[in-house]
Amino acid sequence: MFGVTRQILREHLVEGELIAGTEIAIRIDHTLTQDATGTLAYLQFEALGLDHVRNELALSYVDHNMLQTGFENADDHRFLQSAAAKFGVHYSRPGNGICHQVHLERFAAPGKTLLGSDSHTPTAGGMGVLAIGAGGLDVAMAMAGEPFTMTMPQVVAVRLIGGLGQWVSAKDIILELLRREGVRGGRGRIFEYTGSGVEALSVPQRATITNMGAELGATTSIFPSDGQTLRYLKAQGPELSWRAIAAGTDAAYDAEIVIDLDALGPLVAGPHSPDNVITVEQVAGTLVEQVAIGSCTNSSYHDLAIAAKILEGRTVHPNVSLVITPGSRQAFLMAEREGIIETFLRAGARILESACGPCIGMGQAPASSSASLRSFNRNFEGRSGTPDARVYLASPEVCAASALAGRISDPRDLAIPYPVIPLIPAEYLIDDTQVIANPPNPAAEIVRGPNIAPLPIFTALPDRLSGPLLLKLGDDVSTDAIMPAGAKVLPLRSNIPALAAFAFATVDPTFADRAKKQPGSFIVAGSNYGQGSSREHAAIVLRYLGVRVVIAKSFARIHAANLVNFGILPLTFTDPVDYDHLTPSDLLDMRDVAAQLDAGGPVRLTNAVGGRVLELRHDLSARQREILRVGGLLNHARQGVLAAV
Ligand code: MIC
Ligand code: SF4
Question: Which of 36, 438, 528, 618 has the fewest C-beta atoms under 10 angstroms from its C-beta?
Answer without folding.
Answer: 618
